[in-house]
Structure formats: C-alpha cells, structure tokens
Design brief:
- By secondary structure, this protein is of the alpha+beta class.
- It folds into two domains: about 110 residues, no CATH class; about 80 residues, Alpha-Beta Plaits (2-Layer Sandwich).
- Helix content is about 55%, strand content about 10%.
- The strands form two sheets. The chain has a five-stranded antiparallel β-sheet with strand order 6-1-3-2-7, covered by helices on one side.
- Strand 2 and strand 3 form a beta hairpin.
- The longest helix has about 35 residues.
- The chain is elongated, with a radius of gyration of 26 Å.
Length: about 230
C-alpha cells in the first residue's frame, strides 16, 4: 500500500509531497486546524480527504478478512474424537504450528488490529472536522465565501443571510473584526453560482459585503479567531 501511495503522490504532486501528506494526516489526527488551513497545495488537500475514504474501505475489508480468518480457524480446529496414537502423531507433526509461529501470528494480528483502529480513528476525525474542502472549479461542494463582515454582525445573521440563497452548510466563521468572513457550501455548483449572483448585491448588517466563489483557502487567514458552526 505504501508503494502504491508513493507512486500516486509522486506522479501527481511530486516526491516532496509525500511528507506533506503525512504531515497533513498527522495534523488531522491531532486536530491541528492551523496546519490544515495553511496547506498551500489545495489539490493535495483534497487528495488527503479522498484518500481517507479509501482508507476507510481498506479498514473495513481488513476487519472483514480478519473475521473470516477467525471463522476459518475455528471451523478447521479438529474435534477431540478418539483416534489412534499414530494418527494423532501424524496430525501433530504436520498441522501443529511451532510456538514461535503462533507467537508471530498473534503479534501480527495485534499489529493489524492496532493499525486498523488507528486508521479508522483518523478517518473519523477527518470526516468530523470537515476542514478539507475541494476548492477546484468543478467541485461538488461548491464553496462560497462572504468577505468584509462587520464585527457587530452575529453568526445567526450571517446564517440567515446565506440561507436566502438556498440550503447550505457552514464550514467556518471568523469573528475577527479586521477579517470577518464566513465560508459556506451549497448542494451544487449551480446553486453556489446563483447564491453569489443573488447575495453579492444584498447588504448584511446594513453594510455591503463581498460574496464570491474562490479557489483559495490560505488567503482567508483562518488562524484568526474561529467558531465551528453546526447546521
């Protein structure tokens, strides 16, 4: 799996990006939003999110395989029916694993289980944080950014403002007075474009705000004060 991942990352993002991907995944596991937000390579950021889905499926298949192996071992365990001493000797000489083999097998199972648990936990964190968003022009998550929000405008007012354009999900909101902004996503690119056309001419809190769809993340400087919003 590491070889496949290296080949995919090297061919698409360059050899130096593999370490960046690892750092990004580590940051996701530690919930370090700053590193995630400041990632300069948006394509790599989206790849990490997509890769998490692949990881989740791999973990599921690994767990399924382990369960099948356990059932297979249980089914193949010989019953304690009477038999001749010679047949017992033959079976023990051909089928019984050595103590070292049993120890290595148990250790391998423990390692696989631990790896699966870590991977599943990382995927779960990645999905819950919702911080890795595809900002490419053909994104289905359709980010919309509202700039220049006055400090006096509360998040409920921002939600109401954006909701006029349709069903949305907030991603992040900054209440920093010098860099007030909100980031939302709509159900489709068409809906996002319609939201921009409709909302960009409307006032928010008695002041004009700028509404746009952009393909950047870092210029928002989200290391400022932020609040996670739940729909």
């Amino acid at each position: 799996m590491n070889a496949v991942l290296r080949e995919v990352v090297d061919s698409n993002f360059g050899s130096a990006s593999l370490d960046s991907l690892r750092q990004l995944c580590d940051a996701i596991g530690r919930s370090e939003a700053k590193m995630i937000f400041e990632c300069q390579n948006l394509s790599l950021l989206f790849f990490a999110r997509s890769f998490a889905v692949v990881m989740e499926e791999a973990v599921r298949q690994l767990q399924q395989l382990q369960a099948q192996r356990q059932l297979s071992v249980a089914a193949s365990t010989p019953s304690s029916s009477p038999s001749s001493s010679s047949s017992r000797d033959d079976s023990s000489s051909t089928c019984s694993p050595s103590p070292a083999a049993r120890t290595n097998g148990a250790a391998s199972t423990v390692r696989e289980g631990a790896s699966a648990a870590v991977a599943a936990s990382t995927v779960s964190l990645l999905k819950r944080t919702g911080k890795t968003i595809d900002f490419s022009p053909d994104a289905t998550e359709s980010p919309v950014i509202v700039h220049s929000i006055a400090a006096a405008v509360k998040k409920d007012a921002v939600r109401a403002f954006l909701s006029q354009a349709g069903q949305l999900e907030f991603i992040v909101y900054s209440d920093d007075p010098s860099k007030g902004y909100a980031l939302a996503k709509f159900e489709s690119n068409r809906k996002a474009d319609e939201a921009v056309a409709r909302l960009d001419v409307m006032p928010l809190g008695g002041q004009h705000v700028h509404v746009s769809r952009k393909t950047y993340w870092t210029k928002l400087q989200p290391q400022q004060s932020m609040q996670q919003l739940q729909q």
